[in-house]
Design goal:
The complex is a heterodimer. By secondary structure, chain A is of the alpha/beta class. Chain A has helices spanning about 25-30, 50, 90-100, 110-120, 130-140, 170-175, 180-185, 190-195; strands at about 10-15, 75-80, 105, 125, 145-150, 155-160, 160-165. In chain A, strand 6 and strand 7 (about 160-165) form a beta hairpin. Chain A is globular. Classes of the chains: A alpha/beta, B alpha/beta. The complex binds iron/sulfur cluster (SF4).
C-alpha cells in the first residue's frame, strides 16, 4: 500500500453527483487502459466512455456530470446502488483516487470493489436510499455544498443533516491506521507456518 | 454444530480470528498478466518474496492475440505486460503456462483442466470469475491487486464471513436447455446484485445431474448475481473429472483426499441466510436484452417495457439499457438481426460448449450478414476439438477458428466490436462498452449463439435439436 502511515482523516469536500445505479468497473476504467503495469496515472481515464465524446480527436463530453464546472475539485462521489460491480480490477479505485476522490457514498457496493477501496484509502460509505436522496437534493440545491465524513465517528454530515453509517471494525482499522496490511499479517507468521505444517501433502 | 459447505471450508482454513476478520490460508493462487504486475512491483518495493511459488500458477490469457502466437501481435503495451509476467514468474520461481505452451489457456479453463483445483481448497485469482472453481466444491473468489500482493507475501487473505444462500433447482431440464440458461434464469430471478454479500451454494437434482463443465458455467456467473463465490458440493462426477489429472493427488494420497472430499457437503440441518428455489422445467433458452446480466428474458418473450417495472431505479436502468441496446419495448429478439457471434470465454469455451455449438453449426451456414468466431478456452480444448473435427464443422459453416484466450469477452486484444454492432455472445458480461465502445452484447448459451449465427437473428435453439 502506498498510503502507508497516512491514515484516513475526517474529510470535508464538495460533491460530484453521479445519479446512476449499477455503475460497473468497465465504466469506471475501460479495458484499453488495463495494459499498464503501474498503479499510477489512471485518473485521466476515469469514466472514459462517458467523459469523452466518441471519435478522434478526443473531445470532452460537456453533458457528463464529472465535466460540469461546478463539480471540479469534488472529493466526494455520490451515487446509487451496486456501485463497482463487475470486474475485480483494482484499476477502478486507482482511477478514482488518482482523479481526487476520497469518499464514495452509495446505497450499496459490489463486494470485491468495496474491499479494493479499503485497500486504497478510498472510503466507501453505505447509506439508505432516503439518506442518499437527501444528499442528492442538497447538491441539486447548491452545487457548492460540502459533505463532511468522519470515519472515526462513522458519520456523514451535510447542512443540518447528520447520518450514521456502518463499517466493519477491521476495515475501519485498516483505513484509519494506514498501516501496511501485509506487515500486519506477517506479525502472525508463526501461526501461518504452523498451519502449513499441519497440511496434508495433497492439500 | 451443523454447518454449510461454505462454513466447513472457511473454518478449515482459518488461521487467526480478529474482530470481524479472519485470516484464511490460501491453497491455490492463479495469476495472469493484467492484475499481477503492480502486485509484483509492490513486493519488490518492500523486498518481499512470494511465500509459496509452488502454490501459485500463471497463464497468459487476457491481452493475447487469438490470431498469432507472437507476444507482440497486439501492440507494444500488451507485449510489455506479457513480458513483465514472464519476467516476474521467472524471478519468483512460478510455473507459467505462457503463449505457445501446450497447456496454456484462459485461467479459469486451464486451472481445472490441470487438476489444480480440488474440493475443499481455497482458491483466489485477481479476476472476478474465479468463482468458476466453486464447481469443484472449492471456496474460490476474485480479489484485487493489493490482495494478490498480500497472498504472494503471506499465502493468506483477510476475509469477513459471507452470508450463505442456497439456490435449489429441482426437476429435469427441457431439451436444449443448458447450464448457461440456468444461470441466466437465476440472475434474472434474484437480480444482478441479488446475491451481494453472499456465497451461493447450488443444489438440487437439476444441478447434481450436470457435468463438471456445465457446473463451471453456473459457478462462473455467480459474480453476475453479485455473489462472492458459488459452490457445488463434490460428488462422483467431480471425482471422475479429477482422477488422473496432472496435479490431482495420486495413489494413497488420492484415497485419503477422496475420503476427505466426501465430508464436504452442507449438513442436513444447516441453516442458510437465504433460500431460492427454481423449477428446472420453467427454464427457457435465455437471452439478455439489457446492459446488465439481470436484464434477461426467454428467447420468445418480447423485450420488456420500462413501465412494467415498479421501482424507479430498475425503471431508469431499463430506459437507459433499451437506449444503449437500440431496442424497443415489445420487440422480439427472434426478429432482431445480429452482426456478430462470439463463442468463447471462461463461461463457455470448454469442449462440451464447442460440441453443443457444433451440433447446430452442422445444420447450416453462417448468415452472410454475420461475422462469427469460435475461440477455444485452452490449447487442450482446441486440440480435443480438432481431434473430434469440430474445427472443420465450424470452418465449413463459416465460423472463424481461433487460438485460445479471453478474446472478445473483454477485447483487450484486437477482437473488438464497433459502435452499433450487435453480438450474440457466450461470455458473461453485457455491460456498456464491454466488447467495444457502443457495441451491443446479448448473452446466450453456445448453442443459441450458433443458432443466431446461422439465422442472422436470435433463434429458439429447440428448433435446431437433432
Ligand atoms: S474470459 Fe472474460 S471473464 Fe473470463 S477471465 Fe477472460 S476476460 Fe475475464
Amino acid at each position: 500500500m502506498t498510503a502507508e502511515a497516512q491514515g484516513f482523516k475526517a474529510q470535508t469536500g464538495t460533491v460530484c453527483p453521479l445519479d446512476q445505479a449499477n455503475v460497473d468497473t468497465d465504466q469506471i476504467i475501460p479495458k484499453q487502459f488495463l495494459t499498464s503495469v503501474s498503479r499510477k496515472g489512471f485518473g485521466k481515464h476515469l469514466f472514459f466512455d462517458w467523459r469523452y465524446n466518441k471519435g478522434e480527436p478526443l473531445t470532452v463530453n460537456n453533458d457528463f456530470v464529472l465535466n460540469f464546472p461546478q463539480h471540479q475539485g469534488a472529493t466526494v462521489l455520490l451515487t446509487r446502488e451496486n456501485f463497482g460491480c463487475g470486474s475485480s480490477r483494482e484499476h477502478a479505485p486507482w482511477a478514482l483516487t488518482d482523479y481526487g476522490f476520497k469518499v464514495i457514498i452509495a446505497t450499496s457496493f459490489a463486494d470485491i470493489f468495496y474491499g479494493n477501496c479499503i485497500n486504497n484509502q478510498l472510503l466507501p460509505v453505505k447509506l439508505s436510499d432516503e439518506q442518499i436522496q437527501v444528499l442528492f437534493d442538497a447538491v441539486a440545491a447548491s452545487s457548492s455544498v460540502e459533505i463532511t465524513v468522519d470515519l472515526q465517528a462513522q458519520t456523514v454530515s451535510c447542512n443540518e443533516h447528520e447520518f450514521a453509517f456502518e463499517i466493519g471494525d477491521a476495515h475501519k482499522f485498516t483505513l484509519i491506521s494506514g498501516l501496511d496490511s501485509i506487515g500486519q499479517t506477517l506479525l502472525d507468521e508463526e501461526k501461518i507456518t504452523q498451519f502449513e505444517h499441519a497440511r496434508q501433502t495433497w492439500q | 454444530m451443523s454447518k454449510t459447505l461454505y462454513e466447513k471450508i472457511f473454518d478449515a482454513h482459518t488461521i487467526v480470528e480478529k474482530d470481524d476478520d479472519y485470516l484464511l490460508y490460501i491453497d491455490r493462487h492463479l495469476i495472469h498478466e493484467v492484475t499481477s504486475p503492480q502486485a509484483f512491483a509492490g513486493l519488490e518495493e518492500k523486498n518481499r518474496k512470494v511465500r509459496r511459488p509452488d502454490r501459485t500458477f500463471a497463464t497468459m490469457d487476457h491481452s493475447i492475440s487469438t490470431r498469432s502466437l507472437a507476444l507482440d501481435a497486439c501492440g507494444p503495451e500488451n507485449h510489455k505486460q506479457l513480458r513483465t509476467l514472464a519476467q516476474n514468474c521467472e524471478k519468483h520461481g512460478i510455473t507459467l503456462y505462457d503463449v505457445g505452451h501446450k497447456k496454456q489457456g484462459i485461467v479459469h479453463v486451464m486451472g481445472p483442466e490441470l487438476g489444480l483445483i480440488l474440493p475443499g481448497m481455497t482458491v483466489v485469482c485477481g479476476d472476478s470469475h474465479t468463482a468458476t472453481h466453486g464447481a469443484f466444491g472449492a471456496l474460490a473468489f476474485g480479489i484485487g491487486t493489493s490482495q494478490v500482493e498480500h497472498v504472494f507475501a503471506t499465502q493468506t487473505l483477510k476475509q469477513p464471513r459471507a452470508k450463505t444462500m442456497r439456490i435449489t433447482i429441482e426437476g429435469e431440464l427441457l431439451d436444449g436447455i443448458t447450464s448457461k440458461d440456468i444461470v441466466l434464469a437465476i440472475i434474472g430471478e434474484i437480480g444482478h446484485a441479488g446475491a451481494t454479500g453472499y456465497v451461493i451454494e447450488y443444489a438440487g437434482s437439476a444441478i447434481r445431474s450436470l457435468s463438471m463443465e456445465a457446473r463451471m458455467t453456473i459457478c462462473n456467473m455467480s459474480i453476475e448475481g453479485g455473489a462472492k463465490a458459488g459452490l457445488i458440493a463434490p460428488d462422483d462426477i467431480t471425482m471422475d473429472y479429477l482422477k488422473g489429472r496432472d496435479y490431482a493427488p495420486k495413489g494413497q494420497d488420492w484415497e485419503e483426499a477422496t475420503r476427505y472430499w466426501q465430508s464436504l457437503y452442507s449438513d442436513d440441518d444447516a441453516v442458510f441466510d437465504a433460500e431460492v428455489v427454481l423449477k428446472a422445467e420453467d427454464i427457457e433458452p435465455q437471452v439478455t436484452w439489457g446492459t446488465n446480466p439481470g436484464q434477461v428474458i426467454g428467447v420468445n418473450t418480447p423485450v420488456p417495457n420500462p413501465d412494467d417495472f415498479n421501482d424507479s431505479v430498475t425503471k431508469t436502468s431499463a430506459v437507459n439499457a433499451l437506449d444503449y441496446m437500440g431496442l424497443e419495448p415489445g420487440q422480439l429478439l427472434t426478429e432482431t438481426p445480429v452482426s456478430h457471434v462470439f463463442i468463447g470465454s471462461c463461461t463457455n469455451s470448454r469442449i462440451e460448449d464447442l460440441r453443443a455449438a457444433a451440433v447446430v453449426a452442422k445444420q447450416g451456414k453462417v448468415s452472410s450478414s454475420v461475422t462469427a468466431i469460435v475461440v477455444p478456452g485452452s490449447v487442450q480444448v482446441k486440440q480435443q476439438a480438432e481431434q473430434e473435427s469440430l474445427d472443420k464443422i465450424f470452418i465449413e459453416a463459416g465460423f472463424e477458428w481461433r487460438l485460445p484466450g479471453c478474446s472478445m469477452c473483454l477485447g483487450m486484444n484486437d477482437d473488438l466490436l464497433k459502435e452499433g454492432d450487435r453480438c450474440a455472445s457466450t461470455s458473461n458480461r453485457n455491460f456498456e462498452g464491454r466488447q467495444g465502445r457502443g457495441a451491443r452484447t446479448h448473452l446466450v448459451s453456445p448453442a443459441m449463439a450458433a443458432a443466431a449465427a446461422l439465422k442472422g437473428k436470435f433463434a429458439d435453439i429447440r428448433a435446431f435439436q437433432e
